[in-house]
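Suppose a colleague, Dr. K., hands you the sequence of a protein chain of 243 amino acids and asks what its three-dimensional shape might be. Before reaching for any lab equipment, you can write down a predicted structure in token form. Begin with the sequence itself:
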Amino acid sequence: MATSGRGTGIVGYNVQIAVDPERHLVVAHEVVNEGHDRTQLVPMGDRAKQATDAGEIVVLADRGYYSGDEVLACEGTGILPTMPRADTSGRAKKGLFVRADFVYDAAADHYVCPAGAVLKKSNARSDRHGDIDHYRNLEACHGCAMRARCTTEKFKRFKRWKHEAVLEAMQRRLDAMPDAMAVRRATVEHVFGTLKAWMGSTPFLTKGPKGVRTEMSLAILAYNVKRMIRLFGATWLIQAIRA
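The predicted structure, expressed as tokens, is then:
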């Protein structure tokens, strides 16, 4: 399985699970042969939605699942992804302004920079991607005392994705749920921790995607059975199975 780092591939699989935060039951799971989670938001969200038969679900995920295209694909499907936006620029560590420091005015379609200057949309160029708009203010940047914290170039060119509104809506959901990531950790990581405690350091006993999926399905089944016994009792579970 290839991972994101060069030369860091491993012999293994990427296990995906979706867990109900109320009862801590695994509602969906999958085993994939990708060393990252950036393409798993839609398929796992869809599986969880179908399994719960819910018209709309809020999906809490860590920043490893962040992908603008995946978030956009969830739009209008009843899947509401909620996760931190991945910051790959490293600007904050360098003491530079980050994206959140620039305020977007949707009505005027412009940005206001930390210095208070207005960055207006520039004309599209043929050598740029059609789904990205550029905002700038050459005059304001020229004599700005804060330019060193803003850009290493002569002026700031701020990029905005055509579908940025869906990412901003996701950020508002996250802001409205300050404990979202704590809930995610206490829900999903607890299940992974339990399964690892049961399995110990032993790797999967089977080989190949089909075998590993079967083995993982049995582990999830055992977890859910024990969890339901804990919640409802063995008598109730036996009666439910017979029914």
